[in-house]
């Protein structure tokens, strides 16, 4: 169970939940320095939106994220609260953050999320909230733009796993990740709890499955290209093994989402047919990417996705979010 922690000398007016329009949720796990940079970017928001921040530390042993968040709140740089989710896994942490935010700030209409290795531009929150109000949509997404270290090879700079799904503002069929999103309260109220399916806890993709259910339930999406967040790409991700594993995981996630919806024998037969069809399609996409002078590593991505689907169909699922 998630447990909220008291803040030292918290000003009652700063914690008044009746004057909050939006809550920014920040799940964190063993990244205290990066978390501090993320919170710095939230403290620098240029916005008229009354917002609070909810930090959920998924490391119940060291709780270094708690120390960082508590310092920000105690110094008055941000208003909000911090809690610990002792059950390990990104789905548990995200569900805890959204759940605590809705419970503690009942007047808030919008719930946003940013990862603990991301930096929001100063107008991020303003752009997201304004888009939700003006467009009347249920869910808003924005780009997470990679910041590569100097000298990063071109093969990685142009690889699809690092880039957002859309590149211009407008209505979207759905979004795929919670790393830069706004979700209206009515979305959570219209779906069964918990928000993210715990079966995706260590695989990843719980956010994609959640947004898939949102789309099927009729909720509307909008992409705001101007609501930019930046993510520092660590050297550990600039390796052949990491990129290939990410491609395989994408395929496994896509298959797992399709499998959850395939409840009848006919639907499962269609799912098998989809796997069969994806194989030549992925080869065709890879050849087109090579013809367009894309790097072979990028062209291998659709092939990796197809292989990941087949591996998942045999129960072989990666667990990139399982930590010791």
Automatic annotation (TrEMBL):
InterPro entries: Glyco_trans_2-like, Nucleotide-diphossugar_trans. Keywords: Glycosyltransferase, Transferase. GO terms for molecular function: glycosyltransferase activity. Coiled coil: none annotated. SUPFAM superfamilies: Nucleotide-diphospho-sugar transferases. Residues 24-176 form the Glycosyltransferase 2-like domain. The keyword Lyase does not apply. Gene3D superfamilies: Spore Coat Polysaccharide Biosynthesis Protein SpsA, Chain A. Belongs to the glycosyltransferase 2 family. PANTHER family: GALACTOFURANOSYLTRANSFERASE GLFT2, RHAMNOSYLTRANSFERASE WBBL. This is Glycosyltransferase family 2 protein.
């Amino acid at each position: 169970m998630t447990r909220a922690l008291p803040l030292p000398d918290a000003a009652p007016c700063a914690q008044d939940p009746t004057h909050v329009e939006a809550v920014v949720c920040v799940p964190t796990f063993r990244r205290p320095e990066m978390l501090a940079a993320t919170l710095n970017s939230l403290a620098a928001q240029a916005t008229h939106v009354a917002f609070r921040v909810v930090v959920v530390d998924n490391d119940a042993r060291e709780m270094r994220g708690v120390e960082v968040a508590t310092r920000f709140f105690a110094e008055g740089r941000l208003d909000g609260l911090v809690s610990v989710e002792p059950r390990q896994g990104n789905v548990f942490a995200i569900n805890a953050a959204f759940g605590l935010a809705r419970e503690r700030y009942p007047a808030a209409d919008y719930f946003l999320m940013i990862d603990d290795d991301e930096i929001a531009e100063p107008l991020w929150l303003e752009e997201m909230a304004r888009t939700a109000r003006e467009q009347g949509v249920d869910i808003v997404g924005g780009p997470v733009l990679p910041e590569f270290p100097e000298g990063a090879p071109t093969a990685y700079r142009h690889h699809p796993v690092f880039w957002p799904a859309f590149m211009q503002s407008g209505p979207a069929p759905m979004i795929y990740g919670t790393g830069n999103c706004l979700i209206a309260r009515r979305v959570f109220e219209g779906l069964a709890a918990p928000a993210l399916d715990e079966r995706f806890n260590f695989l990843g993709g719980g956010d994609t499955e959640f947004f898939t259910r949102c789309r099927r339930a009729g909720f509307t999406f909008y992409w705001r290209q101007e609501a930019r967040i930046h993510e520092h790409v660590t050297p550990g991700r600039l390796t052949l093994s990491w990129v290939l594993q990410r491609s395989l995981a994408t395929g496994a996630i896509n298959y797992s989402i399709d499998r959850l919806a395939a409840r009848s024998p006919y639907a499962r037969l269609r799912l098998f047919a989809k796997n069969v069809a994806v194989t030549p399609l992925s080869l065709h996409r890879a050849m087109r990417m090579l013809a367009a002078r894309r790097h072979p590593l990028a062209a291998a991505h659709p092939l990796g996705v197809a292989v990941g689907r087949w591996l998942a169909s045999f129960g072989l699922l990666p667990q990139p979010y399982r930590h010791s």
